[in-house]
Amino acid sequence: MRRSVAKHRRCHFTFNSRIMQSMSVLSSAVKTTGGLHHLRTFAIAVAVLAFGTGEALGEPPCGDGTPLDANCEIALEALHPTQLAVGMMQVEERAARMKSGIDGVRYTRERPIPVVQGPDGGFYLTDSHHLVSVLTRVGVKRATARLIGRIREPADFWPEMQARHWVYLFDARGKRIAPSALPKHIAGLADDPYRALAGYAESAGYFHRTDAYFMEFEWARYFGSHMRWQPIDRMNLLNALESAAKLACRPEASSLPGYAGPCRP
């Protein structure tokens, strides 16, 4: 139900923004065409441009006037991460499979990147760090975002971000970090090989995706602690996955989100 309401608001805002842009163009046309016949023709052309394709006018830029739950267009370099690291092996693999020359705004339109506007006016990425890292690697400059929150008071910002699970203030081994330790831009995200291992383990079905917050990081810490944080790279990834498969079904993993059940004999 909440998703439907958000979608309705997004469509309503996009529809209205396109109407306003079209009306502005038509207003100028009234002064220059000098007749209703030309105006009708021009109005039809603008209507087709704005609504017929559904993409021609795009989204307005993200800013102070962007309503909550609305889509907007944002530069990827303007996004502030809310976690310390990503699994670079997964990022590199996905980037290698992605076609060059991709339109980032169109690519992310159906599933916009969630952002929160902070008291400094900046936009903080609350999810999709791996996707944004991939898009950045293939040269994408801009994407479609959805404004899911706006926190104006500096004193409230990080406490509210934590309360709403919009930030992950831990390092790869689960040690708490200060917000100041977070990277300022996507390019500053560190590599967490065990986060990549958790992602591959999830894809292999060793545990299931749930709605739990930061579940992949929980599994990453579980795997790392039981594998004594041995280095992981592409050369030993298959061996690491074999170990992860055995660890994922052990009883001590049953409290983790997405636990797939006990090991088979």
Ordered list of secondary-structure elements with their pairings:
Elements: H1 2-33, H2 36-52, E1 71-75, E2 79-80, E3 85-86, H3 88-97, H4 104-107, E4 113-117, E5 123-125, H5 129-137, E6 142-150, H6 154-163, E7 190-191, H7 193-203, H8 215-226, H9 237-248
Parallel strand pairs: 2-5, 3-7, 4-6
Antiparallel strand pairs: 1-6, 4-5
Task: Describe the protein in words.
It is a single chain. With 265 residues, the chain is an alpha/beta fold. It has 3 domains: 2-52; 71-190, Conserved hypothetical protein from pyrococcus furiosus pfu- 392566-001, ParB domain; 193-253, Helicase, Ruva Protein, domain 3 (Orthogonal Bundle), CATH 1.10.8. 44% of the residues lie in helices and 11% in strands. It has 9 helices and 7 strands. The chain has helices spanning 2-33, 36-52, 88-97, 104-107, 129-137, 154-163, 193-203, 215-226, 237-248, and strands at 71-75, 79-80, 85-86, 113-117, 123-125, 142-150, 190-191. The strands form 2 sheets. It has a 5-stranded mixed beta sheet. Strand 4 (113-117) and strand 5 (123-125) form a beta hairpin. Helix 1 packs antiparallel against helix 2 (36-52), helix 7 (193-203) packs across helix 8 and helix 7 (193-203) packs across helix 9 (237-248). The longest helix is centred in the first third of the chain and has 32 residues, at 2-33. It is globular.
